Amino acid sequence: MTAKKEGLFLAHLADLARQVRQRHTFRFTGFLDPAEQAIASAFFRQERDINFIFNGGYPEAERRIAIICPDYQDPATIESPLAVLVITWNERFHQPNHRDFLGAILATGLRREVIGDIITGNSRCQVIILAESGPFLANNLTSVGRAPVTTALEPLSGLEIPTPKTKVITATVASPRLDALLAAAFGLSRSKAVPLIKGGQVKVNWREETNPDCQLAAGDVLSLRGYGRAKVAALEGTTRKGRLNVKLERWL
């Protein structure tokens, strides 16, 4: 996020907080990516008279909205403004992927911030969406890629939560530097990892990181463009030769 974009985002959050305080009611943002959630969390924690939670429809959701309310109200008791659009098609003719679904949805004219996680499966896709935009999308989404589709709008309670598929990787490294852990997570040499980092293709906790020397900690999430995502699950002490044992989880 550029400095200008972050400034506009913070101004939007400040306006929502002002509305909550003045009108004694709740407000919610559009769907935020993890980097935006980190900014919003830091902002709302320092705001007076404000409570907030994030909600993406299920605990492991990546894209989530922030629900903001007065401090005397529990945001968890506010009715969720989310719904689920279920998309089905005949997989004998075409198998759309995540990019196909997102492209088709945005082609209807909806903004990205009204769309949460897109969960794909065999002949079925679940799109978490702001409920107010659900009828429009259900009526206007007729095809994805080359596949004609049918749609059904369901309450959030109808969501089938996926089981994430991950691969556990154990390795030893000289130190918890970004280049070393990135190489271990994605099966690269450090000499190949370094130019990828310096070239802006790597994010740490959803923020671009171009310093190969960056020190990581347990819980940090790595994203490498074209390869996927991995998490530093644990730093588990040193070997007899002084190398660090690490455990990583890579999403498949």
Automatic annotation (TrEMBL):
SUPFAM superfamilies in UniProt: Alpha-L RNA-binding motif
Span of domain RNA-binding S4: 176-238
Gene Ontology MF, one: RNA binding
Signal peptide: none
InterPro entries in the cross-refs: Nucleotide-bd_a/b_plait_sf (IPR012677), RqcP2_RBD (IPR040591), S4_RNA-bd (IPR002942), S4_RNA-bd_sf (IPR036986)
Pfam families registered for this protein in UniProt: S4, YlmH_RBD
Domain of life: Bacteria
Keyword terms, alphabetized: RNA-binding
PANTHER family: MITOCHONDRIAL TRANSCRIPTION RESCUE FACTOR 1
Annotated protein name in UniProt: S4 domain protein
Organism: Neomoorella stamsii
